[in-house]
Design a protein that fits this description.
This protein is an alpha+beta fold and 148 residues long. It has one domain (2-38, 46-140). The chain has helices spanning 9-28, 33-39, 46-64, 94-117, 119-140; strands at 2-8, 69-75, 78-84. The protein has a 3-stranded antiparallel β-sheet with strand order 1-3-2. β2 (69-75) and β3 (78-84) form a beta hairpin. α1 (9-28) crosses α4 and α3 crosses α4 (94-117). The radius of gyration is 17 Å and the shape is elongated. The two termini are 21 Å apart.
Length: 148
């Protein structure tokens, strides 16, 4: 069974910037105004954020390759994953896997960005990305129940 998943770079970066903005905005209400401003990434930082997203996609391929075959490409701003799963794979898991890959990539981009600008906060986002990894492994292992 083939599973095709496409995620655009702009979706990943937009979500990462949005979450960084809200994290920074929340911190501005306390004593950490300087840190809050440092957290926030704009489109000006896309040249820094893009390699983080590419690295996250490559890491995702390594993870999926443990349970299925995956071909990956990145072109014209789109990450494309073509996964060959076992014939009895539960295809209802496909959209959930896509969602978890997206979450993984966003949290990984945020974690990498924060590693550079606020390392003490980055750990949270790396933990969230690991949570997505575990979810993907679990979902890739789901199989259809025999009907006999």
């Amino acid at each position: 069974m083939n599973i095709s998943i496409s995620i655009t770079l702009s979706e990943v970066l937009t979500q990462a910037r949005k979450r960084l903005y809200y994290k920074g905005k929340a911190m501005k209400e306390g004593d950490a105004i300087q840190l809050a401003t440092t957290l926030q990434a704009s489109q000006d930082e896309d040249d820094v954020l893009t390699p983080f997203a590419q690295s996250a996609a490559e890491r995702m391929c390594d993870l999926i390759n443990k349970t299925a075959s995956v071909n990956y490409s990145f072109g014209t701003g789109t990450f494309s994953f073509s996964i060959t799963a076992p014939a009895n794979f539960d295809e209802n898991q496909s959209p959930l896997i896509k969602g978890s890959i997206f979450k993984f990539m966003v949290n990984r981009v945020i974690g990498e960005w924060l590693s550079d600008v606020a390392p003490n906060i980055a750990k949270t986002y790396f933990e969230l990305s690991m949570e997505s990894e575990r979810d993907i492994v679990t979902r890739m292992a789901k199989r259809k129940k025999p009907t006999s």
